[in-house]
Amino acid sequence: MVTCVNDAMFPDTGKAVVRLLRRLGVDVEFPSIQTCCAQPMVNTGYLDEAVPVVRTFVSAFASYDAIITPSGSCAGSVRHQHSLVARRSGDPSLAAACAATSPRTYELSEFLVDVLGIIDVGASFPHRVTYHPTCHSLRMLGVGDRPLELLRAVRGIELIDLPSADQCCGFGGTFALKNADTSVAMGRDKADTVCATGAEVLVAGDNSCLVHVGGVLSRAGGDVRVMHLAEILASQEEVSA
Amino acid sequence: MGSTFVGMPAFPEAARTQLANAQLRTNLAHATATIRAKRGAAVGELDTWEELRRAGAAIKDQVLRNLDTYLLQLEETLTANGVIVHWAADAAEACTIVAEIAKAHNVNEVVKVKSMVTQEIGLNEALAEDGITAWETDLAELIVQLGDDLPSHILVPAIHRNRSEIREIFVERMAAAGRPAPADLTDDPGMLAEAARLHLREKFLRATVAVSGANFAIADSGTLVVVESEGNGRMCLTLPSVLVSVVGIEKVVPSWADLDVFLQLLPRSSTGERMNPYTSTWSGVTPGDGPQEMHVVLLDNGRSRALGDEVGRQALRCIRCSACLNVCPVYERTGGHAYGSVYPGPIGAILNPLLRGVGDDEQVDSLPYASSLCGACYEVCPVLIDIPSVLVDLRAKVVDARRGGVPKAEAIAMKVAAWTLRKAGRLGAAERAAGLARRLLRHQTALPGGRAGITSLPGPGGSWTAARDLPTPPEEPFRAWWRRTSGGKKGADQL
Predict the structure, then answer these.
(1) Which residue of A36, A45, A180 is in closest CB contact with B399?
(2) CB neighbourhood size of B387 (10 A)
(3) Nearest-CA distance A66 → chain B (Å)
(4) Mean pLDDT value across residues B294-316
(5) Per-domain residue ranges for chain A?
(6) ipTM of this model?
(7) Does A144 touch chain B (CB under 8 A)?
(8) What pLDDT digit, counting tens, does each position of B187-213 carry?
(9) What share of chain B is helix, strand, coil (3-state, %, to 5)?
(10) What CATH architecture is B11-303?
(11) Residue A179 near residue B369 (C-beta atoms within 8 A)
(12) Architecture of A128-234 per CATH?
C-alpha cells in the first residue's frame, strides 16, 4: 500500500520502498486498484464515507501475504480502524475481509525488522540526520526503536538525537486545517528543536507529518530538508573514505 | 466574580486568542514540563504500574456496570451513618439543594474545598444569586477567584499564572475579600503562601457551612474521601458545623480495599508524588467531633447519558488526575480556557460532549476535534481511558448529528473524497488534474533540497499555506510511473 498521499505527492517514497524491498529479495506488487486507507474520513467523523474506501482496500489487498506501507499512520488506521468501519457498514463479509487484511498490514520498519529479520538493509547515506518518531507509529503501532535500529546500520550516517522526540509535530490529519493555528504552533516548536540539532535531514516514517514540519521549516527559511525513512534505507549514495 | 465559560467561542477561535499570549505559552510550557517530569519519575518507581492501571480500570468498569446497585447501597450506608442524602438530576437541582441548606442555616457565606463538580454545576454563581458568597479555599482556586478569572487546569487551576501575577492579584484583590495581603508582599512563594494562609484561616474559623466534592465514595461503609495537598480541604471538612458534599454518581467505589489501587494511581499521576499530603475520610456524623450535620448530593448532570454511550462510557472511569492535560501538546499550547469548560484538555474534549450531548452547540461539537490524536493522553491515563478512540467516535457522532441538514463545505469535500477514493481510476484522474493545475500555480518557491513548493493556495488550502509551504504536486504520480515502467522494470528510470 503506497498510500494516497505518497501516490499523489511523494512518488519517490513509493519507488524507494519498491527498490529497497526488491533489493532484499521481496516480490513486490502494486495492486493498481488501491486508493486510500480511509483514515481521513474516519478521523474526521465520516464513517459512512469511509465504508466504500475500506471496501476498495480489502479487494485490492485480499490476495497478498503481507501488505506493506511506508506510513505508521496508515498502517495504524488499517489495523485499528477498519474493524470500526466494517461494523458501521453492518456487512459481516466486510468485517471478515478486514479481519483478514488488518493483521497482515505492516509499517515498513515493522516488516523489515519483524518479518524479514533484517537490521542492515545495505544502505549508505553520508549525512547528518535526526529522526522524528511519528505519533501513530510510536503509540498506535508501537514500532519502538525499529526505525532507529535500521538507521544506525546505514553506512556513513551521522544520527543525531532529537530532543523531546516523542512530542507530536502537530500535523494530525484534518487537525492541520481545522485547528491550523494550534497545529502550526506545535509544528514551529518541533521545527525549532530540529534546527537546534544541526541536522541536514529530518527523517520520519510518515510523509504526512513531514509535509507539515517540512512546510514550517521551509517557511522559516532554513535549509533542513525532510526525507522519508524508506528513501534513506533505499539510498546507496557513495560514502567517501 | 462574574467570569464564566458560558458563551465561549468554538475551540479553534478560542485557541487562536490563547496562542497569541506569549506569557501564557511560557507559563504553561514550564509548568507542564515540570509536572510531566515529576510524574514520569514517580510512575517509573513502580514495576506494577501497568497492573495498577488495569486494576483501576477494572474496578471502575465493574462499578459502572452495576451503578444502580452501588448507588442504592451508598445511599443506605450514608443514611445509616446519619448523613442526609439528596439526588440531583442536573446542575440546577444540585445548586438549589445546596442553596436551600445554606439558607436554612441563615448564612451569607460558605467555605469550599477544591472540587471539580461544584465548578461543573456553577455552584458559586448560583449561590451568589441567593446572596451567598462561596469562598474558594484551595490556594490555586483562591488565586482564580480573587483574579475574577477562570480555572485552566483540573488540578492546578491557576497554572496559567506565574508568581508575579499572583502577587499582583493578592495585593490588589485580597482586601476586598477579607484579610488584606501584607504590605511588604513579594513574589517569594513562601510569602505568597503565608499571605493566603492568614487570609484563609479567618474564613475557616468564621464559616458555619462548608461545601465539598469527593474523590471517592465508598459504598459498603458510607465513607467519603477527599485527596488534597494543602490541608485547606481538611480545615473545611472539620471546622464548620454543616458539611454539604456534592458527588458525581460515578465516584462510587465498592469498598475500602479499592482505595489501595486508587491512592497509588492518583497522586503519582496528578502531582507526581508517591502519596498526597492529606487524605481525609469521613463516614457520617461523629457526635461532638467535626460537622454535626452532613448532606451528600448525588449528581447525575449528564453522567447517565455518558453511561449510555458504548464507546464513551469509559470516560466515567476518570479520577480527575489531569495527567492527560500535562502531556497534551494541544493543551500545552492553548491552555485550558480554550476548551470553554472547567474540564479542559483531552479528558475535557471527550467529557464535555459526553455529558452534554453533541449536535446542539458549536462549542461542544468543536471539542472532539481539538486533538491531533497523538495518543500521549492514553499512554499516561491511570485508568486506561482510550481518549483518542473516544475522540474519533465522538467526531462520528458530531457528523452524524448534522447529517440531513444543509451540508457544510467539509461534508461535501468528504463526500467528493470518498467518491474519488472508491475507484483507483477516479483517483488517477484527480492526480492528473492536480498535475495540470501545477502549471497554473503562481506562488512558487524552492523547498530545502530543491523540490518546487507552493507558498500560497486559494480557498481552504489557504489555512495550510498561511504558515507552511507545500510541495508542488509531482509531474508523475506513483501509479502513473508504475504503469509506464511496468512496475519499475522498463524504461529509462527503471529501478
Answers:
(1) A45
(2) 28
(3) 18
(4) 98
(5) 4-115, 128-234
(6) 0.96
(7) no
(8) 999 999 999 999 999 999 999 999 999
(9) 55, 10, 35
(10) 3-Layer(aba) Sandwich (3.40)
(11) yes
(12) 3-Layer(aba) Sandwich (3.40)
